Amino acid sequence: MSRMKYPPSVEPWFVKLYQTEHDRVFQVTYALCGDRPTAEDATQEAFARALERWDHLRDQSWAAGWVTSTALNVARRMLRRRRWLPGSGPVDVDPVADGALDLWQAVRRLPRRQQQAVTLHYAFDLPLAEVAQVMSCREGTVKAHLAHAREALRTRLEGAADER
Amino acid sequence: MNDDRDVGQRLRGALERIRAPEPQLEQVIGRARRRQARRLMAAGMIAGLVLIGLAVPFILLGPIRGAGPATPVTTPPPPATSPPSTQGLSLPAARPGWVWHTEQASGVAVQAPKSWTFKSAAMGLAAPRALLALGTGPMPAGGDCAPRAAIRALPKDGALLWVLEYTGGENPYEFPPRPTRFDLGPLAGPFECVGERTHLILFRQAGRFFQVHVMFGPRASASLRAEVAAALSSFMAEPQGVSSAQSCRQGLWVYCPEAAWIFQIIDRAGLFQWGNTGQALQAGPTNGRPVPNSNSLIEIWATRADPAGLQTRYQPVTVAAGVTVYGDRTQLVWEAQGFDVWIRPAASSKAALPSGKALDRLVTASLEVPFVDDRS
Asked: Which of A137, A156, A158 is the best substitution to test chain B (most B C-beta atoms within 10 A)?
């Protein structure tokens, strides 16, 4: 690896974050945006931004949550931009056909803040206080988002089961 | 699906089935470098444009200046007692024995006795943003989401306060308009970050949203508590973005002082604020659960009191906390502090209109929580 321009103390911290969290960040981004190349690109971009913000994120237990939120925002922006390119039709979002991902498809349809709360709390196991930090809101608000999300997920999955 | 653990397991289980690409750390580092280079280049271009912008008028005005008599330019040194100046803040003279502390990067300033310790950006907290800490004792660095080292070093007769700023994603009504003088209020918490109970003060000022934690040592005097309240009352902030008053005038009710007042009434009445409809807040009792059942939600809002009086349009229904409550089968309304306060069951809920002690608590709270208007 070539010498990094960033303070040396960042390196071990960042490498560890990248190695331990890369797969999960990608998986969540892909599950929610549904487009593999976009998810790969957004994951890389989010980690690059994390490296720039090393002074805020170093050794924070919620750093992975921050990277994921960033990756999702980047992915959404990329998909939106591709939709608006002249001559390009709607983005071909992979139908995540595997039944095991039904739940994530339902998560995709939740409002953005609820998606974020569900992702951070359930996929990354972050406690409510840390989810609140990443989302810049209070714990009570996170609880409300999660409760709304669970209710919506239950309704949607029950509706889908009835249709079958 | 309501089981937290079940949802988590199912979501994580589904993710395990997605194959992730090989990690490419080199590419990430390269990308970060390119971003940095782009930013530097952009900063250089902006600096160049600013320089050109400054130089052009000088070049054009040079001949004109040269034609007149030479005028000596003297810049008097600032008097020793003059307050420090921040870019957009005009600070009044400090109280005798006090000094202004400014946090230039975030555009805030606070006054405190000279002997106190001031520290800007007291911890590495990104969101909410840590702005400053003030204390009577030493202020060692350390702590991520709270100044833990300074808390540990808090003298038994000392005080410590720190200010955070929320920079997005909040419900504006959770931050009441800033009062002229702060009341520290009761101890709250313990908060997860702090691990102890603190006085928690939320307020909005200059279009910004602040949170203050205040802690005292067990032997702190009443005069020290008054000094802390006075220091906090001196807090000034540069305006940023659109003010709550402007947003309110544009029709965004959640930014109006009425919404902030209703939020505090809900809190004082022991209800949980669930969300808002844009024109009303939704709230309900938690009955020991983390959040209320959506079937038990009511909507609550306030309008300027009808000058003709409520009795001209509604029948009296009951008296709560000494106040006549009017209404019909769908809603209740009473007058408090020049406002009509309305409640009705939320559209999606099967809640009955509050009565008895629940209604008493709401009416009492509407009389006790002062309405602060920040529209002017």
From this structure: A137
What ipTM was reported for this prediction?
0.75
DSSP-based three-state secondary structure for B211? strand
Per residue in A99-110, pLDDT (tens digit) is 556 788 888 888
For position A104, what pLDDT does the model report?
84
Top-tier CATH class for B98-241: mainly beta
Tell me what pLDDT residue B48 has.
74
Closest CA to B333 of B352, B315, B351, B307: B315
Q: Tell me the mean pLDDT in the region B178-205.
A: 83
Question: What residues are paired with B129 via a beta bridge?
Answer: B165
- Let me know how many helices (H) and strands (E) chain A has, helices first: 8, 0
Q: Which two tokens stand for residue B49?
A: 């444009």
The answer to whether the Cβ–Cβ distance between A129 and B192 falls below 8 Å is yes
User: From the list B35, B166, B291, which residue is nearest A147 (CB)?
Assistant: B291
Mutate to test the interface with A, among B18, B213, B286 (most CBs of A within 10 A): B18
Please, are residues A35 and A77 in contact by the beta-carbon 8 Å criterion? no
DSSP letters, B215-263, are EE-TT--HHHHHHHHHHHHT-EE---SS-HHHHHHTT-GGGSHHHHHHH
| Sequence spans of domains, chain B | 98-241, 247-368
Which residue ranges form the domains of chain A, and what is each CATH number? 1-94 (1.10.1740), 97-164 (1.10.10.10)
- Measured between beta carbons, which residues in chain B are less than 8 angstroms from residue A127? 192
B283's enclosing H/E stretch is strand B281-284
Predicted pLDDT at B76: 34
Residue entry with tokens 């020793």: B80
A56 CB burial (10 A radius; 0-12, 13-18, 19+): middle
Q: Please state the pTM of the whole predicted model.
A: 0.52
